[in-house]
């Protein structure tokens, strides 16, 4: 059945907040239209999630997640009740299909459903399905290209239920990697000549997974996930210093750790992170026709780990930057710049979700 959440591509109604539910935290961003000045960041807030509440994109403990969403809404002070939520890329099947041009919306729906049954490995009645018309096919004016997206209904319903239990209405359901790209597109547009012809690699280093996307001229040309993230560093701190997981996580952020931490624990982690990045880039070269990457952006909760940017830049020999999705935005009076400096890269997905207000 077709779901009209404007599910995986939908258009939101203002005001809309973006809420990113990751493995380790819930993050909220609210943006507004600042007219000629572009976009204003009205609010952002984050709340940590208990370990195990969300695993591999699955909501394992609904109550804990709802509790964190309620807290982040309260902390942010937002009055908005419409929310854009994200689905992990692994939970969504996307496929570009070619259909004849000139069909009505109803005919398109019927056609998309019959096409979908070929690509989706489970029964259509278990699936939330949506589609987006990309546009005419370049070399064939009688055809259009359509993006089909499907997710297991229970995974969509879990997120809708979290919204409802938190007093919010899920108006838009997006794919986290698409939201990240929307936020990145804003930054790339600020590069000389709008980044035209630049091959840009985005590494979102989360708690458990690193998501890699490579873009050229607004198109994603490569995507993949690697099982590597900041949790392994936290676990090493737990083992070495006998701390609880929560305490290790807090001290990892504040840097209040014994003297031998930098050499014995942080340095090997940075080495393996640099190796993951250089390997991923080699893999991109061997599995695509491309032979260069012009710019690496680092995002996600781990992007600001001290020393990470330097080691990646020196090992990859590629210009590397930690990505702030708020670059070039106006800041509302209540937004603390200091907080943004310390945390901005982790807000990439939430910021992309919040941008759906203008889509």
Automatic annotation (TrEMBL):
Cited SMART domains: FtsA
User: What InterPro entries has UniProt attached to this entry?
Assistant: ATPase_NBD, FtsA/MreB, PilM, SHS2_FtsA
Instruction: Write down the CDD domains for this protein, in alphabetical order.
Output: ASKHA_NBD_PilM
Gene Ontology BP annotations = cell division
Q: Which Gene3D superfamilies match?
A: 3.30.1490.300, 3.30.420.40
Q: Which Pfam families match?
A: PilM_2 (PF11104)
Domain SHS2 spans what residues? Answer: 16-184
Name of the protein? Type IV pilus assembly protein PilM
Species source reads Pseudoduganella violacea
């Amino acid at each position: 059945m077709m779901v009209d959440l404007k599910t995986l591509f939908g258009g939101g109604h203002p005001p809309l907040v973006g809420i990113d539910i990751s493995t380790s935290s819930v993050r909220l961003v609210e943006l507004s239209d600042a007219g000629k000045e572009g976009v204003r960041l009205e609010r952002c807030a984050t709340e940590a999630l208990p370990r195990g509440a969300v695993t591999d994109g699955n909501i394992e403990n609904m109550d804990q997640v709802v509790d964190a969403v309620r807290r982040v809404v309260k902390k942010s002070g937002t009055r908005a009740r419409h929310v854009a939520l994200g689905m992990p890329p692994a939970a969504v099947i996307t496929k570009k299909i070619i259909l004849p041009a000139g069909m009505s919306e109803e005919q398109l729906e019927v056609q998309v459903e019959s096409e979908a049954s070929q690509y989706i490995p489970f029964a259509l009645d278990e699936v939330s399905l949506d589609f987006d018309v990309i546009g005419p096919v370049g070399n064939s004016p009688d055809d259009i290209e359509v993006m089909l997206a499907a997710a297991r209904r229970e995974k969509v319903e879990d997120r809708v239920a979290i919204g409802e239990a938190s007093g919010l209405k899920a108006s838009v359901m997006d794919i986290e990697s698409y939201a990240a790209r929307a936020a990145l597109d804003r930054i790339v547009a600020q590069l000389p000549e709008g980044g035209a012809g630049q091959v840009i690699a985005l590494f979102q280093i989360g708690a458990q997974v690193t998501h890699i996307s490579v873009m050229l001229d607004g198109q994603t040309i490569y995507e993949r996930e690697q099982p590597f993230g900041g949790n392994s560093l936290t676990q090493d701190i737990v083992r070495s210093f006998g701390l609880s997981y929560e305490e290790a996580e807090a001290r990892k952020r504040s840097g209040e750790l014994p003297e031998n931490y930098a050499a014995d624990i942080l340095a090997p982690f940075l080495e393996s992170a640099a190796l993951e990045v250089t390997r991923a880039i080699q893999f991109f070269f061997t599995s695509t026709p491309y032979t260069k990457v012009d710019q690496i952006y680092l995002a996600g909760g781990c992007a600001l780990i001290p020393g990470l940017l330097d080691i990646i830049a020196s090992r990859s020999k590629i210009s590397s930057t930690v990505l702030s999705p708020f670059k070039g935005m106006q800041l509302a009076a209540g937004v603390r710049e200091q907080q943004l400096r310390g945390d901005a890269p982790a807000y990439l997905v939430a910021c992309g979700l919040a941008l759906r207000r203008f889509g």
